[in-house]
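Module 6 notes. Inverse folding takes a fixed backbone as the condition and produces residue identities as the prediction. Think of it as a translation problem where the source language is geometry and the target language is the twenty amino acids. Below is one complete input and output pair. Work through it position by position during the lab.
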């Protein structure tokens, strides 16, 4: 089932936005990492120094519990050890598996300057509140308000076809060209990371890439 704006939301009178849930296709791919460093239509979002010797690329879905665990329990230690010291940078790429994840990514992309990663962090920390909710709109609105959204800007963001298409382009390219079919998935200096998503295993891979 493809994600499109109709699947993301429906305007339903005074009740506001209603998000639908569906799946994404897993197209066949021919793995070619030669274009891995090319950013998507809206550019890459990353933390760390742009000229860091090691580049980690993460493909994640906002509704993925393993992604949330990585961002809450593993990334802080990696950030302190490698990113804050200038040894590595992390490029975070959107790979939504369902319309709720797409909506979360769209809101993060619409967030004010400097608020993308803070919003991603809150969305992961409060994942259960909006992923498991029968109506995810109220908890998503509450998170968006923390980043400065109004009701109008919240609704306008989720109706922005350009942002939706841009996120989908990143997802489709990753699936088709790089074999991304699960999240989180990491590439370290262009090599697919095959280890466990632990501080120990990822630290070894980062150090080996230096």
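Target side of the pair, the amino acids:
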């Amino acid at each position: 089932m493809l994600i499109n704006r109709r699947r993301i939301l429906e305007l339903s009178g005074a009740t506001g936005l209603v998000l639908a849930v569906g799946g994404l296709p897993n197209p066949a791919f021919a793995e070619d990492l030669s274009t891995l460093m090319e950013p998507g239509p809206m550019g890459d979002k990353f933390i760390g120094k742009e000229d860091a010797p090691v580049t980690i690329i993460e493909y994640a879905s906002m509704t993925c519990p393993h992604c949330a665990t990585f961002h809450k329990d593993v990334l802080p230690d990696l950030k302190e050890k490698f990113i804050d010291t200038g040894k590595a940078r992390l490029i975070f790429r959107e790979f939504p598996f369902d319309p709720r994840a797409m909506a979360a990514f769209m809101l993060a992309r619409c967030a004010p300057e400097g608020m993308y990663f803070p919003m991603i962090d809150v969305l992961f920390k409060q994942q259960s509140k909006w992923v498991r909710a029968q109506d995810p709109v109220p908890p998503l609105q509450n998170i968006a308000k923390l980043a400065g959204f109004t009701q109008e800007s919240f609704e306008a963001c989720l109706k922005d076809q350009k942002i939706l298409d841009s996120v989908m382009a990143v997802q489709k390219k990753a699936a088709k060209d790089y074999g991304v079919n699960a999240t989180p998935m990491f590439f370290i200096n262009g090599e697919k990371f095959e280890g466990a998503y632990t501080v120990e295993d990822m630290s070894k891979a980062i150090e080996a890439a230096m």
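Reference fact for the lab report: Strands lie at 10-11, 17-18, 45-47, 54-60, 88-94, 185-188, 191-192.
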